[in-house]
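dumping this here before i forget
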Amino acid sequence: MTKIGLMTNVVVMQEPELLTTEIEPLTTAEVAEELGCSVKTVTRLVEDGKLTALRKLPGLRATYLFERAEIERAKTARAAAPASASP
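structure:
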């Protein structure tokens, strides 16, 4: 157990393996490459609620950060969409 915080005589403990768990987020450009579309399309998908970003970074050209699992879900959904739309 590792001490990670102290609040008025209460010691908060957490398992070490939980402290080392990291998510390697993907940027908007990386997601666009994965999905085979433009950065603008990825931004539009987020704005339309079809893709969920972990967060949006600050700045004029604020990029979004995505979890890989979300991108895999989006790839599956995009692959299934044309098949279900055909007559």
